[in-house]
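lol forgot to send this yesterday, sorry. struct tokens for the thing we talked abt
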């Protein structure tokens, strides 16, 4: 007999029971390891049927049996990223306030590991999963028959068939760039991380919007990795090539911190020689030298909305929630 393929619907407990020649109750006892004992022969037949059919137990049923319906999963790409760490803290706090708990997993920016973690979360029988995907294109985000509610957070665009939540990145890009324009800076260089393949970076689109509205030609972005190291290399490259702009819009705090380090080494003063506005407004931005003016991501509101969607009665409905952003003005811009 062939295994269950992707094209088929979800295999049911009844199908496993028929193939194994047992009752559905026996299948449940094997899957949940109780509450009643099962003979070794019957257990082997059930396990063999599960293997042949590719059966995955209903996560909601297992949650009720194992007592994990009040536990949610959270998968982030990189826990060392200060922004992701703040998301974790906000989600845990919101969940605890609702009497729920959170299981955390780190995908290490590996799409294959991310999919495996999603399946493992479902197999644990959690009440739902929140995911900041590391996939560079929507086509890579393959989630078939997961069996538990899923909410994608920190999404800049909707994804058909999924519940998604994200900040208004484009408005944030406009806000940051307009702040620099209001200072009188017209030579503004955007620096961002490697872009997703499936759609443009909305933060950069906001930058382009503001520049064009001011009658200026947007500069081509300097593209690096979304890391402190990437920002550091960007700063060194700017210094080495002698292409110092009057202002920089860095599309992430991690990049900005590395950029400030490179400028400091080269004795380039911020904001006297070059102004910098960042995006995220993490704790790193507050305690950098100088403190970074930055677009604040709505981390607490994201956590609140994600938990609300997972705890609402009925299934999680597809659709995108766009959350507003704001600007935290500090001293890196010249204010």
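and heres what i got for the seq, position by position
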């Amino acid at each position: 007999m062939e295994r269950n393929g992707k094209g088929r619907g979800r295999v049911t407990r009844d199908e496993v029971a028929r193939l194994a020649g047992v009752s559905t109750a026996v299948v449940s006892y094997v899957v949940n390891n109780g509450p009643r004992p099962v003979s070794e022969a019957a257990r082997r037949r059930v396990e063999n049927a599960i293997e042949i059919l590719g059966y995955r137990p209903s996560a909601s049923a297992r949650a009720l049996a194992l007592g994990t319906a009040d536990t949610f999963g959270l998968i982030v790409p990189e826990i060392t990223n200060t922004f992701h760490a703040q998301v974790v803290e906000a989600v845990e706090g919101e969940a605890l306030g609702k009497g729920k708990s959170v299981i955390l997993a780190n995908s290490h920016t590996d799409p294959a590991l991310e999919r495996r973690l999603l399946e493992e979360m479902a197999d644990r029988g959690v009440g739902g999963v929140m995911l900041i995907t590391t996939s560079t294109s929507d086509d890579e985000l393959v989630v078939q028959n997961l069996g538990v509610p899923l909410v994608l957070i920190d999404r800049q665009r909707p994804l058909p068939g999924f519940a998604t939540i994200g900040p208004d990145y484009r408005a944030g890009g406009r806000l940051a760039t307009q702040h620099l324009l209001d200072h009188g800076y017209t030579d503004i260089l955007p620096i961002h991380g490697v872009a997703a393949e499936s759609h443009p970076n909305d933060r950069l689109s906001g930058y382009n919007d503001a520049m064009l509205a001011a009658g200026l030609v947007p500069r081509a972005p300097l593209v690096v990795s979304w890391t402190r190291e990437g920002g550091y290399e960007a700063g060194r490259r700017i210094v080495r090539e002698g292409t110092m702009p009057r202002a920089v819009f860095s599309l992430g705090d991690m990049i900005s911190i590395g950029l400030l380090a490179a400028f400091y080494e080269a004795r380039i003063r911020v904001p006297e020689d070059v102004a910098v506005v960042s995006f995220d407004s993490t704790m790193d931005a507050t305690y950098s030298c100088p403190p970074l003016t930055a677009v604040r991501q709505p981390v607490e509101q994201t956590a609140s909305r994600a938990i609300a969607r997972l705890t609402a009665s009925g299934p999680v409905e597809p659709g995108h929630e766009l959350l507003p952003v704001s600007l935290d003005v500090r001293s890196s811009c010249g204010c």
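Residues 64-168+299-325 form a domain with the Rossmann fold fold (CATH 3.40.50.2300). anyway ping me if u want another try
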